[in-house]
Description:
This protein is mainly α. It is built from two helices and two strands. It has a two-stranded antiparallel ribbon.
Amino acid sequence: MSDREAVDRLTDLLADLGFDPAADGAPGEAPDRIRLRHCRFLELAEEYGQIICPLHWAC
Length: 59
């Protein structure tokens, strides 16, 4: 599997989980980072951010 194929599979998985990923970088190349443009825990984080955010970042 190429780097690009691995990135595509990862971004597909993240999209399925509701994170709305966006890979940075040139088309056809492995990106330097993948930005997650949606927090699927946003409603919980708004009320319980001190608990939810550290738990989510530890995953």
